Amino acid sequence: MPEAGGAPSPEAPGGPPRIEAVEPIERAEVIVCSPGRNFVTLRLTTRSGITGLGDATLNGRELAVAAYLRDHVAPTLIGRDATRIEDTWQYLYRGGYWRRGPVTMTAIAAVDTALWDILGKRAGLPVHELLGGRSRDGVTVYGHANGEDVAELLDQVATYLERGYRAVRAQVGVPGLRSTYGVSRDKLFYEPADAAIPTENLWSTERYLRAIPAALGAVRERFGFEFALLHDVHHRLSPIEAARLGRSLEACDLFWMEDPVPAELQEGYRLIRQHTTTPIATGEVLTSIWDCRTLIEEQLIDYIRTSVVHAGGITHQRRIAAFADTYRVRTGSHGATDLSPVCLAAALHLDIAIPNFGIQEYMRHSEETDAVFPHSYRFADGMLQPGADPGLGVTIDDGLAARFPYRPASLPVNRRLDGSMHDW
Predict the structure, then answer these.
(1) In this structure, are residues 341 and 394 in contact, taking their beta carbons and an 8 Å threshold?
(2) Catalytic residue status for 234
(3) What is the total count of domains within the chain?
(4) Structural domain containing residue 184
(5) Alpha carbon of 79 to those of 1, 114, 153, 163, 348: distances in Å?
(6) Looking at residue 44, which CATH number applies to its domain?
(7) DSSP assigned state of 12
(8) Per the domain annotation, does 271 fall within a domain?
(9) Is 181 part of the annotated catalytic residue set?
């Protein structure tokens, strides 16, 4: 039987008859702009005029995804039924010989997110209502406090608590190093992609391990334990170094210690678990459920941080969350400013619906970014609300976007004090 509004098309050579598209895609546009930083946005338009947006931003490699979408993915979408979200996801993933990886999964995510946006608008409902409705009243978020030294860090933590945040990530400069990941001059907007050709930073694990316990201890001593405190290691330690750090931070009662070792070293988390009870979060650079399977199944982590934009969109991120829930692992989705308001909105719709949500990273976008991407989500009392507009609740101002052309920007690289390469 044909689907509502459609009829079988003639039988394709060597295959069954196809069902006519209910909401065929007529146009696929890739928009690259830089309102303070680079973003790639996919806009799909159906024959009936419904549009959907998907974030396709891969920090420092934006044009690779833009080309992948424009040259390889967009042509396959024209005429495809926008209401067949799961089928389209499987088509783009299983239909490709070269699977996974950040470029491919970011492109798939953009298509998937745009289709959910279209479905919500077609139904007249916000996306979270299509995902089963609210599981909570709001989405608890954490902000980024950082300082060149402990005194400045304490001032910044105070600023975030005064703004109503219930959770704060704390990063501090390492004495003797001219720069440290997560520490910036602009305390509200942080963008590490700072030059067309990667800048080079210096790193000392020994100095870092001496500095961080004292800094985070000072935060707890001044502000107490009535808010969640987080810290990002940024993949820079070996397993035994991470185990040592986790143990030294147990008195600080961290909400989590993020990315203690490189993501490739999943078995390293077993050693960390043997030595510390500090909760562990990881996953922002992982792109699929298969990349984090061992971490979740063996309960080597407490929070999985995959993001909508880099892990295959709402469809696949929901699959990861459901798998994690089986092992009592909660979500803590990546949400830095290299993800556009389109992605943040998509994350919020998913966050508010799934049962095992943990926390959402929230770095505020610049005024220019917010102007290019008007949105209905809002912050209040330490939480974000996804908004009640149909679909994602985000649009793009084409005219304003055109005033901010792409500019080359790369993430830094990291070297040890002896000049050898280290993990960024």
Answers:
(1) yes
(2) yes
(3) 2
(4) 131-388
(5) 20, 15, 53, 48, 30
(6) 3.30.390.10
(7) P
(8) yes
(9) yes
Within 8 A by CB and 6+ apart from 325, the residues are 354, 355, 356
Catalytic residue among 128, 231, 234, 316: 234
Radius of gyration (C-alpha) of the chain in whole angstroms = 22
- HSE-CB for 350 with a 13 A CA cutoff: 31
pTM of the model: 0.94
Are 99 and 216 in the same domain? no
**Same domain, residue pair 185 and 241:** yes
Residue 405: closest CA among 30, 31, 34, 70: 34
> In angstroms, rounded to a whole number, what is the distance separating the alpha carbons of residues 40 and 42?
7
Give the pLDDT confidence score for residue 378 in this predicted structure. Answer: 97
pLDDT at position 15, please? 67
For residue range 92-132, list pLDDT tens digits in order.
Answer: 999 989 989 999 999 999 999 999 999 999 999 999 999 99
- Residue of 142, 160, 181, 208 marked catalytic: 181
Quick check: 367 and 349 in contact, CB under 8 A?
A: no
Residue 45 belongs to a domain:
yes
Choose among 389, 292, 380, 396: nearest CA to 349.
389
**DSSP β-ladder status, 378-380 and 360-361:** unpaired
**With 70 as the cut, is the pLDDT of residue 14 above it?**
no
In a domain, 281, yes or no: yes
